[in-house]
Amino acid sequence: MKIKKDYLEGATDSLDLVPIAAYFGKGKRTGVYGGFLLACYNDTEDTYQTITKIGTGFSDEDLVKWTEKLKETVLPSPPNYFDISDSNKPDVWFEPTYVWEIRAADLSLSPAYMAAIGIAAPDRGISLRFPRFLRLREDKAPSDATNADQVVDMYYSQSLTEGLGTKSAAKYY
């Protein structure tokens, strides 16, 4: 039996991320948001930087609940404090309001997401592989979410990138 390392308790740290947008559900998820665009907080620039799209870890009841809650925070367009790429085209945008605890298998470099862009690689951000929703963090405000520097530290401390040495080693990717 193959066991993914993120299923093992303590194998990966969780991240506290902010839902800033959603995608309308299809098929079984029609009528609710079926996926969410998440962001980390960049406290240096006071922006929310996209890091992943998530659709797993939610029960059907969770999706109904989050659709109702997030509908109250819909924005007409993304504000200038959202750091987003052209490849992310969600159906609706939200005011940063909630913080979700997320677990993932790994962190990887991505041209589609903006988390810590230019730090680990000149033209790529950091993204999560196989993210899943764990729970709402009621004890945190959006500005208390995992920040871009923490994302970079997590990226370099994982076994995938261990031994690369310094942040400048990203040129090999």
TrEMBL record:
- Which key words tag this protein in UniProt? ATP-binding, DNA replication, Ligase, Nucleotide-binding
Q: Which GO terms describe its biological process?
A: DNA recombination; DNA repair; lagging strand elongation
InterPro entries in the record, alphabetically? ATP-dep_DNA_ligase, DNA_ligase_ATP-dep_C, DNA_ligase_ATP-dep_cent, NA-bd_OB-fold
Give one GO term, molecular function aspect: ATP binding
Domain spans labelled ATP-dependent DNA ligase family profile: 1-42
The highest taxon in the source lineage is Eukaryota
Q: Name one GO cellular component term.
A: mitochondrion
Keyword Transferase in annotation: no
State the similarity comment: Belongs to the ATP-dependent DNA ligase family.
Task: Name it.
Answer: ATP-dependent DNA ligase family profile domain-containing protein
